[in-house]
Amino acid sequence: MTSAPIKPAVAGDIPDRHELGRLYRSRLSKGRATLGELFGGHVEVASEGARVHTSDGRSFLNCGGYGVFLTGARHPTVVRRVAEQLHTHPVATRIFLEPQAALAADALVSVVPEGLSRVHFASSGAEAVETAIKLARTRGRTRLVATDGGYHGKTMGALSLTGKSLFQDPFRPLLPGTSHVPYGDAEALRAVLAQIPGEGCVFVEPVQGEAGVVIPPIGYLRQVSDLCREFGALFVLDEIQTGLGRLGTWWGADAEGVVPDVLLVGKGLSGGVVPVSAVVATPEAFTAFDQDPYLHTSTFSGAPLAMAAARGAIEAIQEDDLVTRSKVLGEQILTEVRSVVTRHFGDAVREVRGRGLMLGIEFAEPGPAGDLLIELIQQGVIANHSLNSHLVLRLTPPAVLQPADVDFLCEAMDRACRAQAARYTPTSGGV
Ligand SMILES: Cc1ncc(COP(=O)(O)O)c(C=O)c1O
């Protein structure tokens, strides 16, 4: 697990772990400080490729990052573009025309499904969702429909769509006119859309990430698309987590050949270097923003530094054929992880599933997913919990994994499962 420590850029600035804990507690969040301790108290200071390095000289395989690190950390192509931009013109006046935004938009349009040709850049996924909600309103679609367990972020509009009352309840009232339907159930969607012809806007993920890697029945996206057409609803496909190759295809949309009215992109678009998200729309859906560029703005939208990262990320994915790598690596990891986990946990594990490099291990009851996350860290692997499901441990490895990394992951998973299964007492039945 250990390798030569990378020297952080500002070594002198880094407080020791106790001082850092104190700063977190007094300046950021007590709860976040406690979580950091629960996850081992490690202090991350550097990263490259699939590895994250901590201040004590340890190195971890990064299969977490909530889906951001598709290109790994500090991919050379992304870093080169961002570094060039940093030293020339990182933030624009927003009065003159600026090439990086136009080139990044063009690069993105060249890889999205045909028909989507207008781009609005933002910084976070939630901002992209807010933008889509506003686009929907400009088209008279004020009734939002999302899915149970779906995750779209935590700003007020996005939170209204995020199907988890735990996150919503402290902030009610949320956006009016919003409803949720069971994910994967086209008939339930039909029933809702039939009540609001011409007024609906449907937000859906091709695979639900934070709900715990929930894969819908084959044909579901096509049905959603057809229902949106039938009832005059706007179709927003949230590919913030699934897009850019994470699922082993450029987009989850590709698996069923659908073209939404609006496609949301985030996470991996940053190249893991500068936060950036995007809303890619048909010219029709984008009409209002085409006419009035001040209708929806944000100071740092399309900042050249972020645009350089987006261009770099798309180039890196193309140059290294990361979409194919995601598919191939995903199939291999799924097979091996499934075998390891079921061998150790038996009936206590409900399902090990995945598409591309988004994998979920679903347990029969809450508890083991969190415990396994902690145990995996001890074995040198960072994974994700699932914000909308306590049952599922999620792996979102980068597509730059080498064979030795895959071996490392599977061996670490084996050790972690063995240790965890030995300690685990199910509340019902036995392992
Ligand atoms: C599908 C999806 N949409 C939206 C978001 C929100 O993105 P952000 O956390 O960048 O606001 C996420 C984040 O996990 C996501 O997975």
Descriptive notes:
- The longest helix is centred in the C-terminal third of the chain and has 24 residues, at 322-345.
- Helix 4 (99-109) packs parallel to helix 11 (304-319) and helix 13 (368-378) packs across helix 14.
- The two termini are 29 Å apart.
- The chain has 431 residues and is α/β, with parallel strands linked by helices.
- Residues 1-5 have low confidence and may be disordered.
- The protein has two domains: 11-71 and 321-423, Aspartate Aminotransferase, domain 1 (Alpha-Beta Complex); 76-319, Type I PLP-dependent aspartate aminotransferase-like (Major domain) (Aspartate Aminotransferase, domain 2, 3-Layer(aba) Sandwich).
- It has helices at residues 17-28, 30-38, 76-86, 99-109, 125-138, 156-161, 165-168, 186-195, 220-230, 287-291, 304-319, 322-345, 368-378, 403-423; strands at 44-48, 51-54, 59-62, 118-122, 143-147, 178-181, 200-204, 234-238, 262-265, 277-281, 349-355, 358-363, 381-382, 384-386, 389-395.
- The structure holds pyridoxal-5'-phosphate (PLP).
- Pyridoxal-5'-phosphate is lined by residues 66, 124-126, 129, 151-153, 205, 209-210, 238, 240-241, 266.
What attributes does this structure have?
about 425 residues, alpha/beta, Aspartate Aminotransferase, domain 1, Aspartate Aminotransferase, domain 2, 15 strands, about 40% helix, globular
